[in-house]
Specification:
The protein is mostly beta strands and about 110 residues long. The protein has one helix at about 65-70, and strands at about 5-10, 15, 20-30, 30-40, 45, 55-65, 80-85, 95, 100, 105. The chain contains 1 helix and 10 strands, in the order E-E-E-E-E-E-H-E-E-E-E.
Length: about 110
């Protein structure tokens, strides 16, 4: 069974980003279906986002970054970050980290 996990590092503070709402969606054409959701812990990690087996296809992680920065009294540019990725091998684990600052972000496929 394929699984998806993520973690968020706040590059401006140099710390993990805690209490960020994250949703996992399955993307199908113009439709999307929420598969799972979580909130990052004190270590910035959200794991076990999917309670069902993921198949080959496109998925999207949605991070509520505007709320995260707003709760800290920090202005930010992106109200949310959406990362769309493709699962090609359902037997593999997919780790999708988010490196975050108030005015930009970066991502990659981790392990």
């Amino acid at each position: 069974m394929s699984s998806v996990s993520t973690h968020i590092l706040d590059l401006a503070s140099g710390r993990p980003a805690a209490d960020v709402a994250v949703r996992l969606l399955e993307v199908g054409g113009s439709e999307s279906r929420e598969i799972g959701s979580s909130v990052t812990g004190s270590d910035g990690r959200a794991s076990d986002l999917a309670s069902e087996s993921l198949q080959v296809g496109e998925y999207r992680l949605v991070f509520e970054t505007g709320s995260y920065f707003g709760n800290q009294g920090v202005k930010s540019f992106h109200p949310r970050v959406e990362i769309t990725f493709r699962i090609e091998n359902p037997a593999e684990h997919y780790h999708v980290p988010l490196l975050l600052s108030p005015f930009g972000y970066s991502t990659y496929r981790g392990s």
